[in-house]
TrEMBL record:
The encoding gene: fadB
InterPro entries: 3-OHacyl-CoA_DH_CS (IPR006180), 3-OHacyl-CoA_DH_NAD-bd (IPR006176), 3HC_DH_C (IPR006108), 6-PGluconate_DH-like_C_sf (IPR008927), ClpP/crotonase-like_dom_sf (IPR029045), Enoyl-CoA_hyd/isom_CS (IPR018376), Enoyl-CoA_hydra/iso (IPR001753), FA_oxidation_alpha_subunit (IPR050136)
Protein name: enoyl-CoA hydratase
One Gene Ontology molecular-function label: 3-hydroxybutyryl-CoA epimerase activity
Catalytic activity entry: a (3S)-3-hydroxyacyl-CoA + NAD(+) = a 3-oxoacyl-CoA + NADH + H(+)
Gene3D superfamilies cross-referenced by the UniProt entry: 1.10.1040.50, 2-enoyl-CoA Hydratase, Chain A, domain 1, NAD(P)-binding Rossmann-like Domain
Domain 3-hydroxyacyl-CoA dehydrogenase NAD binding, chain residue ranges per copy: 317-495
Protein origin, superkingdom: Bacteria
NCBIfam families tied to this protein: FadB, PRK11730.1
Organism from which the protein derives: Planctobacterium marinum
EC number: 4.2.1.17
Annotated family: Belongs to the enoyl-CoA hydratase/isomerase family.
All residue ranges annotated as the 3-hydroxyacyl-CoA dehydrogenase C-terminal domain in the record: 497-592, 628-695
Example GO biological process: fatty acid beta-oxidation
Length: 716
């Protein structure tokens, strides 16, 4: 045995080839500080052994190395800059040390080789991957850039243009694409991987492969002349700005670092990479995006744990109501392999639901993401019917009829009388109390809310609402079904609006009050999109949700929270609703909607909307961006705090992910609680107090004041 550690082992075979095996004690290999330390010790052992002719680096697990240990990042990134720089420099020098071993090295890549795992393969002279491999540098998705030599080695292996595309998008490559781009030297079947890697190592040791020249190229400046560099980096800067915008500094830093390092050798280029990594690690965007990753792990881990208690396999599902939502839910169930009975009261409605599924599949086929076989299988899994009896054998039925408590109550009662005694019944309601709907059922313990977001096939969140009488078995089963549908479940307790809509409507109330005080809805949308980072400003979002839907939901919220969410007098949303301006669904709301010459959706501010509001709003006033953001976000943040304090949601992490997945909360801000923490709870309380005169939704809770006083945070 050449070396034996907790995460790494190395032995020498009869041909003089060192077999270096990553085999961490957990389920996957990752570069935590223990593994980096062992890699350094391994290098020391290998440097002294003159019997080694070559080395193969491989994994004993089903995947190579998934990257750095992100759970260590929070503590590391809190260190002073000089300490963080020392850590990343020392770590990258361990990769240098491996690259400088006095014999050729070959990486045998199976499964994921991401981040630090990809950088490990780049430190090798040669790379072979099997057909399961996924290779890439996804650090930008965490608000970071490669920190273990990736920005230095990758452009010198595959060229600057390809490398910048890899690193600024964070997308991984399969073996075929990686081979075509020159990131690997061979691709093979999984069962041949180790043999091919060993043969490659033997060929290199025998001098049949010029590994020294390959290594020298990775340590030298980029081979680009001045014009090539100018064109390459100017193009990359333009593409990054168009795709990432100003809120995500990481991809910009990647391009800037590569440009400055282009004329430098490995040592100089690595110093620039280390400095760039530290600058990003200290940024609010990285804190937020790493926080999102960790919160996502919490949510997914909780979901998997809950689903282990499931008692059903969900071979057959039912959907009641075949509109846009019902059709979307039926599609999502069917595309994941569950036979789905779609029931409605009219043939045209059923056709609408089938058309919705076909439309989604058609788009997938045009993009090359859906095969004709997949399309046929999905459509075959959707069984339209007008007859309740077709639901007799379903394991779960999801009601998605009109958002009216009386209608839903009747449908739920009829459903319970039809389905099996152990079938689970869910309501896809967005605001109506689950406890109130449960009163229509004789077995409320098998009933809960299952709130999907529109469009169903694209929005990852499903809010699962636990009623007072909902059993834990029902919750576990619905979580399992949600996971089977490819969605992220977050369980919340019942209240009007649940979590997502409960925090959204105070935001809308802040918007309405702002308009009544003289703000221009176009200016507000621009600030909330371009500066705060929402995918849609509030006026556009209301048009997309539907003005009629929003007005109805506002009534429900007002009934549920009469003191805090009483409807605003002369609410612009209500004015539009009464004028039958329903938003995108009838092409007129705050904006007039249509198609441009290329058939793409376009919107223009509606003069009719301004006229409807004119008699009720103050004289036009220009509000600065900070005030616009404060007046919309304080009500949302306050309501999120109340939901956490009342136990509607179990944790700040789940609340952050719910708003990210359900509303498109700006990822670079990390979620509503991360946003409050970034500002500082004391600063948030002071800001809210500044606007307290505007009404109840601006009043902070005693709990928030206590946290501010004690300098506490919502996110760990």
């Amino acid at each position: 045995m050449l070396f034996e550690g907790q995460c790494l082992q190395a032995s020498l075979n009869e041909n003089g080839i060192a077999d270096i095996v990553f085999n961490a004690q957990g389920s996957v290999n990752k570069f935590d500080q223990q593994t980096v330390s062992e890699l350094n010790d391994l290098c020391a052992a290998l440097e002294k052994n003159s019997d080694i002719k070559a080395a193969v680096v491989r994994s004993a697990k089903s995947t190579f190395i998934v990257g750095a240990d992100i759970t260590e990042f929070t503590g590391l990134f809190a260190e002073p800059e000089e300490k963080l720089l020392e850590w990343v420099a020392n770590t990258s020098q361990v990769f240098d040390r491996f690259e400088d071993l006095p014999f050729p090295t070959v990486a045998a890549i199976n499964g994921f080789a991401l981040g630090g795992g990809c950088e490990m393969t780049l430190a090798c002279d040669l790379r072979v991957a099997d057909t399961t491999a996924a290779i890439g540098l996804p650090e930008v998705k965490l608000g970071l850039m490669p920190g273990f030599g990736g920005t230095v080695r990758l452009p010198r292996v595959i060229g600057a243009d390809n490398a910048m595309e890899w690193m600024t998008t964070g997308k991984d490559r399969n073996a075929e694409k990686a081979l075509n781009e020159g990131a690997i030297d061979a691709a093979t079947a999984p069962e041949q991987l180790v043999a091919v890697a060993n043969q490659m190592a033997a060929d290199a040791a025998a001098g049949d492969i010029d590994w020294q020249a390959r290594r020298a190229a990775k340590k030298a400046p980029l081979k680009l002349n001045r014009n090539e560099m100018m064109m390459s980096f100017a193009t990359a800067k333009g593409m990054v700005f168009a795709q990432a915008g100003k809120h995500y500094p990481a991809p910009h830093m990647v391009v800037e670092t590569l440009e400055k390092a282009a004329t430098l050798d490995r040592e100089g280029a690595l110093k620039l990479e280390n400095a760039g990594f530290v600058k990003l690690a200290k940024s609010e965007a990285a804190t937020a995006q790493v926080g999102i990753f960790l919160a996502d792990q919490v949510v997914k881990g909780k979901g998997k744990k809950q689903a282990k208690s499931a008692t059903k396999k969900f071979e057959q599902a039912g959907v009641l109501g075949a509109g846009i939502m019902g059709g979307g839910i039926a599609y999502q169930s069917a595309v994941k392999g569950t036979k789905t009975i779609m029931k409605d009261i009219a043939e045209p409605a059923l056709q609408l639901g089938l058309d919705e599924a076909s439309k989604i599949l058609d788009k997938g086929m045009k993009r090359g993401k859906v095969s004709s076989k997949k399309m046929a299988a999905t459509l075959n899994n959707i069984v339209p019917t007008l007859d309740y009896k077709a639901l007799e054998n379903v394991d779960i039925v999801i009601e998605a009829v009109v958002e009216n408590p009386k209608v839903k109550g009747i449908v739920l009662k009829e459903t319970e009388e039809t389905v099996a005694d152990d079938a689970i019944i869910c309501s896809n309601t967005s605001t109506i109390s689950i406890n109130a709907l449960a009163e229509n059922l004789s077995k409320p313990e098998r009933f809960c809310g299952m709130h999907f977001f529109n469009p169903v096939h694209r929005m990852p969140l499903v809010e699962i609402i636990r009623g007072e009488k909902t059993s834990e078995e029902t919750i576990a089963n619905v979580v399992a079904m949600t996971l089977k549908m490819g969605k992220t479940p977050i369980v919340v307790n019942d209240c009007p609006g649940f979590l997502v809509n409960r925090v959204l409507f105070p935001y809308f109330a802040g918007f309405s009050k702002l308009l009544l005080d003289g703000a221009d809805f176009v200016a507000v949308d621009k600030v909330m999109e371009k500066i705060f980072g929402w995918p849609m400003g509030p006026a556009f979002l209301l048009d997309v949700v539907g003005i009629d839907t929003a007005d109805h939901a506002a009534d429900v919220m007002a009934d549920g929270f009469p003191e805090r969410m009483k409807k605003v007098d002369n609410d612009p949303v209500t004015l539009l609703y009464k004028a039958e301006r329903y938003g995108q669904k009838n092409q007129k709301g705050f904006y007039n909607h249509g198609l441009d010459k290329r058939g793409k959706p376009q919107k223009t501010p509606a003069e009719e909307a301004y006229e409807l509001m004119s008699a009720h709003v103050a004289d036009k006033k220009d509000f600065d961006a900070e005030e616009i953001i404060a007046r919309l976000m304080i009500p949302m943040a306050n309501e999120a705090i109340r939901c956490l304090e009342e136990g509607i949601v179990d944790s700040a992490a789940e609340a952050d992910m719910a708003l990210l997945y359900g509303l498109g909360f700006p990822p670079f801000r990390g979620g509503i609680f991360r946003y409050i923490d970034t500002m500082g709870v004391a600063n948030f309380v002071a800001l809210a107090d500044k606007f307290a005169h505007l009404g109840e939704v601006y009043q902070v809770t005693d709990g928030a004041r206590e946290m501010a006083k004690n300098n506490q945070k919502y996110c760990g």
